Amino acid sequence: MSTPPNSDGSTTTEMPVLGLGTWQNTDPEDCAAAVATALEMGYRHVDTAQAYDNEEHVGDGIARADVPRDDVFLATKVWIDQLAADDVLSSTEESLDKLGVDYVDLLYVHWPAGAYDPEETLGAFEELHESGRIDRIGISNFQPEGVTEAVELTDAPIFANQIECHPLLPQEELRAHCAAHDVEVVAYSPLARGEVFDVPEIQAVAERHGVSEAQVSLAWLREKGVTAIPKATTEGHIRDNWASLSLDLDDEDVERIDGIERRERRIDPDFAPW
What we know:
single chain; 274 residues; alpha/beta; eight-stranded parallel beta sheet; 10 helices; 12% strand
């Protein structure tokens, strides 16, 4: 059994600036192996969600790795059809059972859509926080007005807003708004689902440093104070992303990437709030 968050609400594990994303990784063995490989390599941040249909496999990977549970920053998300108060509580218990843990370090509202009711949903999240089932409250895909509302409605802090963010969608306004409210930004699809590999400015910086375009994009996000959770399933990609932590971009590199004019949102469902 792992140790739950401290009774005074203080955090147990800091959020590492690079994590492993698991979206679309639904093969039981591939998912568990990717998680275990990443943890053995040095990753300490793993991100999943109810909607990914892989929480059990992620839990298997965590159990397989020779890394104490309390050293792992584990995040999951509540899907839009489970955001009524009772459903938040029951579905989170199911997530904990599937993951094989007593608590998660961060629980997100996956989207402000479907059954999302700010007061009811966030009230249930606070109940989970107070009971020690979750260490931090997160939101995902929230626009500035939704961030403000969530912050104002909760006594416990809103820890992070997980959004699509990468060099083709830098999200300057939203990032600034989150910073003003002491909300961390976590980037999903930080490689724009592979599009960064074909951007000349990123290619030039990668060639200059002798690294991959993925490493450049992840290092650029780190320079912006953004935590990235790139999805990776093979050991090669997991290792390449990990190597981004050793890449330091200079002002010229950052300015070149900042100057990219191409803009592209890769995740845009009908129920999105923008």
